[in-house]
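Here is one chain, start to finish.
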Amino acid sequence: MTSADVLVLGLGGMGCATAWRLAQRGQRVIGLEQFALGHQLGSSHGHTRIIRQAYYEHPCYVPLVRRAYEGWYELEQLQGEPLLISCPCLTLGPPTSELVQGVLASAREHHLPIETLTSDEVGKRFPAFAQRSEVVGVVESTAGYLYVERCVQAMAAAARRLGAELRDNEAILNWRAEGSTLVVRTTRGEYQAPRLIVTAGPWARSLLGELADRLRVMRQVALWHETSRPELFRRDRFPLFIAETPAGYFYGIPAVDLRGVKVARHYGADELLDPQQIERQISEADHAPVRQFLNDYLPAADGRCSEASVCIYTLTPDRHFLIDRHPTIEGVTFAAGFSGHGFKFAPVVGEILADLALTGRSDWPIERFRLRQACWSALGTRNCSS
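Its structure:
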């Protein structure tokens, strides 16, 4: 049986970040991943991801994302390639919308530099957007996008340089506690350690049992569209954006390569119990809502779809993260349910999980993400957002 100080189960963005942060602290780490490292079947792929500070989801995320920026810049130095590219982010929606009001609330509380725009000013600043009299814009200049696959590979490389052993294509069958030792059985053998961290993304339910009984998965599709006026979608003229519309939320990233502009619907699909239920084929039903959004808001981007990618969200009922120690089994820590907005936080989540696993506590503001058994039991009702 192979021994380590800490076992990490799942090596997507959060698992690789955790292995890196643990190895920085001198821990003997073994990370296990059922697929090839950097696979396209979970949540840590899709070329690019938005990173932003004026966080509409809740102001409590702002200190965490600021720390995440530092982690990405640290990782760039270690890897020797750019991972985070600066680009303004435009929040677009009715003045009283949850999206706009949430951005303004985070900006007020944390003194973030933002600029509010009328509908006419949005069109003048970013001419790719059609005039929509019912919306206003909020521009955050400190935002950017991450090259997501590069980020995962960079975190894995940083962990390995520090001695972490990352084993992919090795499925986890089960884990158990034997006294103060945690034992993991895989398709290749058994591993033991006094500490175990579960970062299994959409597969968290299968490893956490009843603790994760209220997690759900959601299929999401990102599309890249060619444009009739490419000059309008360059990074110097077109922002990252998140838009609240009558049809739901949509987000996008400038045309930073020949694929064109990236656009996707945020949420809006069925909630499922298991990632095996995710349909991997792209259908016309995936294109329809995005094409309607482009027709209404970005008419010059309604060209040929050059690429499409299926991604999985792992959802909590309140769409906040789930990060905590196991309430009954000593030495087990977990992070799950990042609800479609977690990847940008990976470097700081890795730090938090290392804190919890090694010391039992973290100085980062994570009370909103803690497990409360009454809220997560099969008979309980989620009511832990206050």
